[in-house]
Write a structure and sequence with these properties.
The strands form three sheets. Strands 4-3-9-5-8-7-6 form a seven-stranded mixed β-sheet, with helices on both faces. It has 611 residues and is an alpha/beta fold. Helix 9 runs antiparallel to helix 10. The termini are far apart. It is globular and about 90 Å long. The protein is built from 25 helices and eleven strands. Helix 7 links the parallel strand 7 and strand 8. It folds into four domains: 30 residues, no CATH class; 201 residues, Rossmann fold (3-Layer(aba) Sandwich); 83 residues, no CATH class; 210 residues, no CATH class.
């Protein structure tokens, strides 16, 4: 009997001659796909960021809160699209992650009331998915949805812009285009009510077959928006349920520990005797249960105070009012002032914009540019009295550079943006560069009429073409320097770039570097002329130029606002350290390079109490 054996990658036809015996085919296994290095790096950044945030929130405790989540068929899509799943109760992120991965399109809507643990579940689900990430699995990224304007910007364009700000060293736009990201959109209910239905329509338009998505929202807002449009295509919905009274008592007992159990015994007895009473119903909310453990679990606090309140609303106000004085007694006024503004992000580069009127920002920026412009005119007029062309050329180039640097800072004051990479298209970047090439030489030409006021000076018309060439040369130098600054900013490690402290350090470093270079150029130009001023005048002019450029930067605007507002008693002098401490205490959460209030209910309560 003949025995044939074949080994190889392909076997189209195998012919057996003679008697038919055994035929063995050995085909090598298909190679595993190579993981995308950018996706792997992003997964490390996202996992590290939210693992630290989850630890700060206390989500990794040995006994997490037993929040039940139940399938909500009334707000899910048709069973043949979303998957026909029974109304199962899920109690942990591991179980919910398994359920999510089994969905046909992997689209999940997480619903619940205020403080029901929606964001906490989203964070834990994200971490669970990152731990199980395969080479071809999309990387989950959590993004607060509140800054999206669906009528002005498509979802994918907004996502690319927002994620580029949070993770500037990763090409997130490419990963998004290649469907390598799993957006976890948090806070649909925080969008303006008049935009929520449009936002849901835009979400549905943006989804292609196979695009995964996780969305969190308060149930009522999502139900209303779905009634005006439709639910998320092919999505399953989970809705939080109150923690049972037995679970509330068990969570309080384990948190107290054996040594402090006597202090909590009156509360535990009340919950056991009246499982539908005001205390049990209030603490069935995960946020209020966490606040009760935080506020009344500290030495000197009496948990029996929780029994004084007749209903859930008064108990909720008590816990929210006591949280800040308990954790940070001297921070209530500052946090209240920050909460009173509508913007959710607490970003250092927006401090001037948040706490002053926008019109004042424009006035200050114009007031800063005006003296630099007048100083440039004066230097041009002085140097122009000489008969040599090189001092004149140096003066024009330096003046153009100063006006470009300080004038460019106007946008940082009037429309502050985070210090990250731009996501503009090549066409928009080219249009902006062309506008600069035309506008800045015009500013230099505007200084030439000053020469008419100087006795003995010549008319400037003959030198107009030379001045334009000089101005263009200056702008090319500025664009090259700007590109160099952006390139040097990108070499900073991605982990550092994604933190508020690292963004502040980078802004300070760039402002001081450019300011020092501008001041030195101004001083050198004055000191090396044919008719130089006294050294102290040249030094003063150089220092003034450096100060003007620094103040025109984002860090300069932040520093000026910080000093003024600290002198007025509205914020601490060490504002960045204050935000970091509030984050450490659990009052704020960190999202990329900005802070946000950890609980929307806390922000609303602080805003109500701020005059």
């Amino acid at each position: 009997m003949t025995h044939n054996q074949f080994s190889g990658g392909q076997a189209r036809n195998v012919v057996q001659a003679g008697s038919v015996g055994r035929i063995d085919l050995t085909v090598p296994a298909a190679p595993l796909p190579e993981p995308d290095p950018d996706a792997r790096r992003l997964a490390g950044l996202v996992g590290g960021q939210w693992r630290a945030e989850a630890a700060a929130r206390g989500l990794f405790g040995p006994l997490p809160l037993p929040v039940p989540w139940r399938t909500e068929h009334r707000l899910a899509d048709h069973p043949e699209l979303a998957g026909d799943r029974p109304a199962t109760v899920h109690t942990g992120p591991a179980e919910i992650a398994e359920m999510f991965l089994a969905l046909p399109e992997r689209r999940l809507v997480v619903l619940g009331g205020a403080g029901s643990g929606k964001t906490s579940l989203a964070v834990l689900l994200l971490l669970r998915l990152i731990d199980r990430l395969g080479p071809e699995d999309p990387v989950p990224v959590l993004v607060p949805l509140v800054s999206w304007e669906p009528g002005k910007q498509p979802l994918r364009e907004w996502l690319a812009e927002r994620l580029t700000k949070d993770y500037p060293t990763v090409p997130v736009a490419r990963l998004l285009a290649e469907r390598r990201l799993l957006p976890v959109l948090d806070g649909f209910d925080e969008l303006p009510p008049e935009h929520q239905a449009d936002a849901l329509r835009a979400l549905n338009r943006s989804l292609a077959p196979g695009d995964p998505l996780v969305l969190t929202s308060r149930a009522e807002e999502y139900r209303r928006a779905a009634g005006q449009s439709r639910v998320l295509h092919a999505s399953t919905a989970l809705r939080s349920r109150p923690i049972p009274a037995a679970g509330v008592g068990e969570a309080l007992r384990h948190h107290a520990g054996p040594q402090q159990l006597d202090r909590w015994q009156p509360v535990l007895d009340e919950i056991a005797r009246h499982p539908t009473g005001p205390v049990a119903r209030a603490l069935a909310n995960p946020l209020l249960l966490s606040l009760a453990r935080e506020v009344h679990g500290r030495p000197g606090a009496d948990p029996a105070d929780l029994l004084r309140f007749p209903d859930r609303e008064s108990l909720t106000h008590h816990l929210l009012d006591r949280l800040v004085p308990t954790l940070a007694p001297h921070a209530a006024r500052t946090l209240g002032g920050l909460a009173a503004h509508d913007e959710p992000d607490l970003a250092w580069w927006r401090l001037y914009w948040r706490l002053t009127r926008p019109v004042m920002a424009r006035r200050w920026s114009l007031a800063l540019t005006a003296p630099v412009f007048l100083a440039a005119c004066a230097v041009i007029a002085r140097v122009d009295q000489t008969t040599h062309p090189w001092p004149h050329a140096a003066a024009m180039m330096t003046a153009g550079a100063m006006l470009g640097l300080v004038g460019g800072g106007y946008e940082s004051w009037a429309r502050p943006q985070p210090p990250s990479r731009s996501v503009r298209s090549p066409r928009r970047r080219a249009a902006r560069a062309a506008a600069l090439l035309l506008a800045c030489p015009a500013l230099v030409l505007a200084a030439l009429p000053v020469r008419h006021w100087v006795p003995g000076s010549e008319r400037p018309l003959a030198t107009a073409s030379t001045v334009l060439l000089q101005g263009w040369f200056v702008i090319l130098l500025l664009l090259a320097g700007r590109a160099w600054l952006r390139r040097t900013a990108r070499v900073v490690s991605a982990k550092r770039q994604s933190s508020p402290a690292a963004a502040l350090r980078g802004g300070r470093r760039r402002a001081l570097t450019v300011g020092a270079a501008a001041g030195w150029a101004w001083y050198a130009m004055l000191s090396t002329g044919l008719d130089p001023p006294p050294p102290w005048q040249a030094l003063g002019a150089g220092l003034s130029a450096a100060a003007a450029v620094v103040l025109a930067s984002q860090w300069g605007a932040y520093t000026l606002a910080r000093l003024v507002l600290a002198a007025a008693g509205r914020i601490p002098l060490r504002y960045a350290a204050f935000l970091a401490e509030a984050h450490r205490l659990g009052l704020l959460r960190r999202v990329g390079s900005v802070y946000q209030f950890r609980h929307e209910s806390l922000r609303e309560r602080l805003a109500q109490q701020t005059p």
